[in-house]
Design brief:
By secondary structure, the chain is of the alpha+beta class. Helices cover 26% and strands 21% of the residues. It is built from ten helices and 19 strands. The chain has helices at 89-94, 102-106, 141-146, 151-160, 178-189, 230-245, 258-273, 280-294, 340-355, 429-444, and strands at residues 7-11, 21-26, 33-34, 39-44, 49-53, 58-63, 70-71, 76-81, 248-256, 300-302, 309-311, 317-319, 321-323, 326-328, 331-332, 369-373, 392-396, 400-406, 409-423. The strands form five sheets. Strands 9, 12, 15, 16, 17, 18 and 19 form a seven-stranded mixed beta sheet that branches. A four-stranded antiparallel beta sheet has the order 1-8-6-3. The radius of gyration is 26 Å and the shape is globular. The two termini are 46 Å apart.
């Protein structure tokens, strides 16, 4: 707080490892009265959107960010004048002039969205021949604006006429780098058919994926166009990148949870008295922790080079939460240090935060392994997409009573379908089936899951 002028500064809170976060909406303007916790701006990371609340009450003296800009932790968002104080005339004079978007400020020569890029020679030392070809695939402007790339990379791509939506990022958290753009252009220009001026994306073996033909759907009947939700716009490119870059294989299995459900039924009333909803997912998370400890290659990630495996000494488990705005993946940190009751409590808190849109960036980072449980809705099996840079994800469908042959007779048992998708570069089929076998056995012997964590 500025004691002389009684001005409070509201800054961007800690956002974990996220950098250059987009400001997608400014919710206040100078002269407005606000209370603590009132949202000031909406930020959008590659995983979710979040509102930054005010930490003070009073009147907005000045807004220091603008829609379309970029911010980092600690950046000044707004100056708030204490109620009853007179306005600062110097602040009022500039209050209507918010700082320009960071991307625009750092790239003054960047053409406006939608304009054709000016021809330019490749950067010195880029290894890309000049003059550039003019038959690169056209830029998808809406996708280009949402691509996970910094201002300098965007400017570089514009100069080369490269569509960022066609490039898979290999930088930090999948960010597109200069080298990714250069590699794309080199691949495109060396693809079959380029010597004759053909489009690489239109021929087998080309440097880019073939484009899906554009269709005028209105020619066949009435249509309605609905924009994708924010979560879909954020998660879509990440899912696409994971599916294209990771060789997925899915191992299907079943777990006998007859005893688990019986035990849960005996314990849930006592847990409820403590304010804990003891769901099947809590037991599944606890069982997955044991499986990850037994098979550490599932609790790992490939490094940026793809030549080394990073084994993690902690176990953070993400889980897909169904919210009104779409699926989100909160992360249960230090799951290996929590018993089944604490896991159940944290699952409830994180799920509620996801539904209310109150999750922080830190609560969605650091996952080692993800569980997508659709059992409450239905289904018998599915192929979940790996949440890169993780190397595996467990899908859980609806349990059902099935006749199982035991001790010379068919008996009804409650069977839970398991769908384990894994990165075949890291995990082979034999290891995957050993993992699901271990997991199924752990779920079938639930008393060990309620033991205290040492």
């Amino acid at each position: 707080m500025n004691a002389a002028a009684r001005l409070f500064e509201v800054r961007v809170p800690d956002m974990g490892n996220f950098k250059d976060v987009a400001v997608i909406d400014v919710l206040v303007k100078p002269g407005e009265s606000i209370e603590p916790e009132a949202p000031l701006v909406t930020l959008e990371t590659e995983k979710a959107t979040m509102d930054v609340p005010s930490t003070a009450s009073g009147v907005i003296e000045k807004v220091h960010v603008a829609k379309g800009g970029k911010v980092n932790a600690g950046d000044l968002i707004a100056t708030v004048r204490a109620a009853g104080e007179r306005p600062d005339p110097t602040a009022a004079a500039t209050a209507a002039e918010p700082a320009p978007p960071a991307a625009a400020a750092s790239t003054p020569s960047q053409p406006a969205e939608g304009s054709a890029p000016a021809p330019a020679a490749a950067s010195p030392g880029s290894g890309i021949p000049a003059p550039l070809r003019t038959d690169l695939p056209p830029i998808n402007e809406p996708g280009f604006s949402r691509a996970h790339a910094g201002p300098s990379v965007r400017k570089f791509a514009r100069e080369l006429g490269v569509d960022l939506t066609r490039i898979s990022g290999h930088g930090f958290k999948g960010r597109i780098t200069h080298d990714d753009v250069k590699a794309f252009v080199k691949s495109f220009m060396s693809a079959p058919g380029m010597a004759a001026g053909g489009a690489a994306g239109a021929k087998p073996g080309g440097g880019a994926l073939p484009a899906i033909p554009a269709v005028d759907f209105a020619a066949f009947g009435p249509i309605e166009t609905q924009p994708l939700s924010r979560i879909q716009r954020i998660s879509g490119p990440r899912l696409h990148a994971s599916w294209v870059n990771i060789p997925h294989v899915t191992q299907f299995d079943e777990a006998d949870i007859t005893e688990l459900e019986a035990l849960r039924g005996r314990l849930k009333d006592a847990a409820g008295a403590r304010g804990i909803k003891l769901t099947p997912l809590a037991f599944i998370v606890r069982a997955c922790v044991r499986a990850l400890q037994a098979f550490p290659q599932f609790n790992a990630s490939l490094d940026a080079s793809g030549g080394n495996l990073i084994l993690k000494k902690y176990v953070n488990v993400g889980f897909a939460a169904d919210t009104p705005n779409g699926l989100m993946v909160p992360v249960l940190h230090e799951a290996d240090r929590k018993d089944v009751y604490e896991i159940a409590r944290r699952l409830g808190e994180l799920s509620e935060g996801a539904r209310a849109g109150k999750l922080t960036a830190a609560q969605m980072q650091g996952g080692c392994f993800t569980i997508s449980s659709l059992g409450g809705i239905g289904g018998t099996a599915f192929t979940p997409i790996i949440n890169a840079p993780e190397v595996a994800i467990l899908g859980v469908s609806r349990s059902s009573l099935k006749p199982v042959y035991q001790d010379g007779a068919l008996v009804p048992r409650l069977m839970l379908p398991l769908s384990l998708s894994y990165d075949h570069r890291v995990i082979d089929g034999a290891t995957a089936v050993r993992f699901t076998t271990f997991l199924a056995k752990t779920l079938a012997e639930p008393h060990a899951l309620v033991e205290a964590v040492p």
